[in-house]
Amino acid sequence: MKKLLPLLVAALFCTGAFAADRAHTLKVYNWADYIDMDNVLNTFPAWYKAQTGEDVEVIYQTFDINESMLTQIEVGKEDYDVVCPSEYIIKRMVRRNVLQKIQKELIADSIYYFDNVTPFAVEKFQQMAPEGITAADYTVGYMGGTTGWLYNPAKLAENGIDESLLHSWAALTNPVFENHIYIKDAFRDVYSVLVLYAYRDELAAGKVTKEELMLDITDERIARVENILNEAKENVAGWEVDFGKEEMTKGKMWLNLSWSGDAQWAIDEAAEVGIELKYIVPDEGSNVWFDGWVIPIYAKNPKAATYFIDYMCKPENAIYNMEEIGYVSMIATPEVFEWANNAEEWPETVDASYFFGDIAKEAHLNPVQYPDIKVVDKCALMHDAGEQTEALISMWNRVKGDNLSTGVVVFLVLVVLCVLAYGIYIVTKNNRRKNGKSKSRR
Q1: What mean pLDDT comes out for the span 246-267?
Q2: Is the pLDDT of residue 204 over 90?
Q3: At residue 213, what are phi and psi to the nearest 5 degrees?
Q4: With bands split at pLDDT 50, 70 and 90, how would you rate the model's confidence at 280?
Q5: Phi, psi (degrees; rounded to nearest 5) at 115
Q6: For the range 97-101, what are the long-range contacts, defined as Cβ-Cβ under 8 Å and sequence gap of 24 or more?
Q7: pTM of this prediction?
Q8: What is the average pLDDT value for the chain, to the nearest integer?
């Protein structure tokens, strides 16, 4: 405690100093491992001073799920200046009036980078906006991607499993993958991909659309997804937020229901140690998701926040961030396209015209980061669950709360029985010793 006391005093002193000089402090709240710290975050203060003549100190904090971030702002009224939520949470934040408009008018034409965001992302964010609201007034796209299977082809081959099984979400319940799948501990993401699988026949028959399934979250649809997850329990080795990709790079797991950015990071890391990983979006479809920068209503430095968001839209910063974290930036300038377009590394072409325009109709791009338009067309945008959020959370908790395979249950029972037997043995032995000592004293 004595060693901790000076640190606590220093922390309190610093907190007070920041609170007294919030005009020169920028509080950023972002996902973990979601920015290039050296080349982007740490260089912002110098760039900001060059543009404004003012000093700024960055306080950088991270969160692991959207809902915990939102609670900090809505309930805790934390004064973060700039935050990076996902699209459905941005919709909720706009609807609940906890965002303020981005002050784009502060930025001079010579450093105005907001227009570098691909129209594809601007359109998708607008689809999330409540009626009468222009999404671009409140959010600027940062990163995006899909959800699919990250997998180890060597592990599958060793066990006689054909990779073609991963063209479907049915792999989740296939017994050949028993205890060899990690699933993202993200109820919205998992629900949104499995509801497409659950209603694949209705989708094929034209009885329902992907957009309807995403928008209208009913009890019946939740129940169908829950049934699939319950069938998959024997296959699920764990629910993970971040450790799954690292386990995949070590060759410890066969499959990971993963975000494309995490998948790309894992693919790159695994390649350095001679492990090949691949990523695929199943044929039934998936979600296409986006994260964007916003300024909460309790922000104390919206000016610096606006400059920061603009700074994130610089092409060189977009490239730095993509190289560091593996996710695909929503910046679609010629510089970014030139960096990404590499025939030697990506000999097969994709049609990414939806992102870069006609220049990318036959482009040599990484298909994990820039999937072909045919993949994008079978994906749908996640939406806020609204009043059904609690029902989704309850379903998720029920599924995870009983996530013990038969083998695991048997093992745990045997462990308990062994512990009990050992305890009985020790007690009996001690009693015998006591009885023996009592007799000798008599």
Answers
A1: 95
A2: yes
A3: -65, -35
A4: very high
A5: -75, 0
A6: 97/297, 98/73, 98/74, 98/296, 98/297, 98/298, 99/138, 99/139, 99/294, 99/295, 99/296, 99/297, 100/138, 100/295, 100/296, 100/297, 100/299, 100/302, 101/137, 101/138, 101/295
A7: 0.83
A8: 89
The first and second tokens of residue 215, run together, are 């928008």
The residue assigned the tokens 């939740």 is 222
Fold adopted by 147-288+377-401: D-Maltodextrin-Binding Protein; domain 2 (3.40.190)
Instruction: Write out pLDDT tens, residues 289-302.
Output: 999 999 999 999 99
- What distance in Å separates the CA atoms of residue 339 and residue 316, rounded to the nearest whole number? 10
CA distance 156 to 150: 12
Q: CB–CB of 222/391 below 8 Å?
A: yes
DSSP state of 22: G
- Run of H or E including 257: strand 255-259
Rounded to an integer, the average pLDDT of 332-341 is: 98
Q: Which residue has tokens 């992302």? A: 121
pLDDT single digits (tens) 357-366: 999 999 999 9
> Which residue in 366, 369, 321, 320 sits closest to 343, CA to CA?
366
The tokens for 16 are 């007070």
Pairing outcome for strands 140-151 and 278-280: antiparallel
Burial bucket for residue 133 (CB in 10 Å: 0-12, 13-18, 19+): middle
Give kind and range of the element (H or E) at residue 246: helix 243-249
Q: 368-377 b/e with 16+ CB inside 10 Å = b?
A: bbbbbeebbe
Q: 147-288+377-401: same fold as 19-144+290-336?
A: yes
What CATH number belongs to 19-144+290-336?
Answer: 3.40.190.10
